[in-house]
Amino acid sequence: MPSPGRLVLVVGPSGAGKDSLLREAAKTLAADRHIIFPRRVITRLSHDEAEAHDSLTVKEFIEAQGQGRFALSWQAHGLHYGIPVSLLDELKAGRTAAVNVSRAIITEAAARFPNVAVLNVTAPAEIIAARLAQRGREAPADIAQRIAREAPRSDSWVETLTIVNDTTLEAAARAFTSALLQLSKESYAAAV
Fold it and tell me: Which of 52, 59, 143, 160 could join 118 via S-S bond, C-beta 3.0 to 4.6 A?
């Protein structure tokens, strides 16, 4: 029986580029069946592939949550987010799963899953503000409030790698993919 896989929690402020980096890593690692990229469920309509997710209404989400259909779920920015329960089978099969989650659930996830690491994506405040403005989802005052908000703290014992996404998407994607491979290989090496 394979050892538990590794859950890589991809965190960072909105606008840091998490979804873009996950999308690029998924393309680069498409042939690697050991690393997977579970699709999130969000109570917001998916407008484009910039943030590919499945959509549910709040009522549908709460029903699904009550039926145990999420391995992880949380609320942030007035929305509900979930990672499908199929994640558990992937981890049991020894795979590494990279998922975009809220920083606020790192401690909970680390307590629930035996092999967790964090891949923290960040960027300077002015770059984040410009990216959020370009999305057009929030008013300038809401963007300023997001930038000013302090990041939730997590347990320092959770292995964490940080990627600063402040140059080109290609450069950041290379660094992100390399870090993800490193975390996956550490997990695989520990299992054998």
Answer: 160
